Amino acid sequence: MRMYDLIMKKRNGGALRREEIEDMISEYTAGRIPDYQMAAMMMAIYFRGMNPEETVALTMAMAHSGDMMDLSKIEGVKVDKHSTGGVGDKTSIALAPMVAACGVKIAKMSGRGLGHTGGTIDKLESFAGFTTGIDSARFVRQVNEVGVAIMGQTADIAPADKKLYALRDVTATVDNMSLIASSIMSKKLASGADAIVLDVKTGSGAFMKTEEDSFALAREMVTLGNMAGRKTIAVVSDMDQPLGYAVGNALEVQEAVETLRGRGPEDFTELCKTLGTYMLIAGGAAADGQEARRKLDRAIEDGSALRKLAEFVEAQGGDPETVYDTSLLPQAEIVEEIISAREGYVTKIDCEEIGICSLLLGGGRETKESEIDLSVGLVLRKKAGDYVAAGEPLATVYANDRQKLGIVKERFLNACHLGDSAPSRKPLIKGVVRE
Ligand code: URA
Q1: Scanning 164, 189, 240, 312, which has the fewest C-beta atoms within 10 Å of its C-beta?
Q2: Are 105 and 250 part of one and the same domain?
Q3: What is the pLDDT of residues 296-315, one digit of tens each?
């Protein structure tokens, strides 16, 4: 196989054969194909797409590029959850302990921020000492003992995706349906859970901007999961504005904690309960949606979900006290409001721009090597459909650099559109894909 020939074949719109994809992935994983050639291939795929056979071959090649985790030592049904990535998406941090508190084992592998979207691992590292760099033996033990564990993608699990994910992040090749589907599903298949609940985002802050593309991505991933013998279900949810109010690592952790106290934003709480319902049913802890909801509500009301978060944080080396006192989370030095110059209704928030604002403040990575600032970000004070008076704050910015703060304030005001009448409210849950 000559990588040059494969790049040219794809660039010219050809379909790669299964053996070509397998060779390409194993050679790249072994370091025998340089990043610049793989980046060219990713760009060719981005423009030319992949057919279903190519997508299956890429998913399987990446899943088998390292170890396939064996979770058979964990009793009961192991459920995993994954989001295609959004802005303000702190779902796993609240959802995993909620579901675990209801008795379903959560064995989850998470990633870092990608493009304008944040990553669960970065957010969890806001708990001082917290580590997702745990080995599979510790992971299995923790799921058995605590009921929930989240590990980072180790070098041994889908290493091809780990390399490709980082490369795509800095070469503008993330938002392609086949690449997203194969990236997510290769990790999910390699990490061994029996059932997978996917949260496929749609809208201006998602990688898939239209509902049509998002449902197509959902179908593609559900098919890949079911084909590999895992019970897979996808919920398509709105990402046309940030989820909840907080965007930025520690700020999002704080909002997730508030949600477990029963004081979370309405949309975020609803999403957690919807995904949680499918996870409880898949995990055998509830017979139907009503029973699942009742259990999830109770886990919040009686404090067991919050305690589960503290237990989980402690098990992974973090300070559990932070769960009960969020002032211990990293704090930004500058806190300033963005004021609305006029009155009106928020008609639209350009969600990707809000993700970029957080990234520019230092909350995300611009290159593979960037260090991120966990304390910075934004907290929206108004969301689409809300009325704002002249002089009222639209958002609060948390920054550590005045120059970045100035840039972000201007970008935010351009991203937040006001009009004279209230727009119609859009549903949060767009639909569910099971087959
Ligand atoms: N999340 C992933 O794991 N991979 C992608 O390609 C996009 C989002």
Answers
A1: 240
A2: yes
A3: 999 999 999 999 999 999 99
Q: Which residue numbers are catalytic?
A: 82, 161, 168, 183, 187
Query: What's residue 368's pLDDT?
Result: 64
Task: Give the distance (Å) from ligand 1 centre to CA of residue 85.
Answer: 7
Q: In what order do the strands lie in the sheet with 393-399?
A: 246-247, 377-380, 393-399, 334-339
321 and 399 co-located in one domain: no
Going from the Cα of 327 to the center of ligand 1, the distance in angstroms, rounded, reads: 31
CA nearest ligand 1 atom 8, residue: 84
Nearest CA to ligand 1 atom 5: 180
Q: Which two tokens stand for residue 15?
A: 């379909």
Tell me the residue range of the domain where 149 lies. Answer: 78-325
Inter-CA distances, 111 with 123, 200, 311, 329, Å: 10, 16, 21, 21
Q: Where are the alpha helices (DSSP H) in 191-288?
A: 211-227, 249-260, 266-282
Work out whether the CA dihedral 260, 266, 269, 273 comes out positive or negative.
positive
Torsion angle in degrees (nearest 10) through CA of 63, 65, 70, 71: -40
Domain holding 28: CATH number?
Answer: 1.20.970.10
Report CA(325)–ligand 1 centroid distance (Å).
32
Nearest CA to ligand 1 atom 1: 84
Residue 347's domain is classified under what CATH number? Answer: 3.90.1170.30
User: Residue 277: CB within 6 Å of ligand 1?
Assistant: no
| Interval 77-120: pLDDT, tens | 999 999 998 999 999 999 999 999 999 999 998 877 766 777 89
Phi-psi region at 292: left, alpha or beta (left = phi > 0; alpha = psi -120 to 50):
alpha
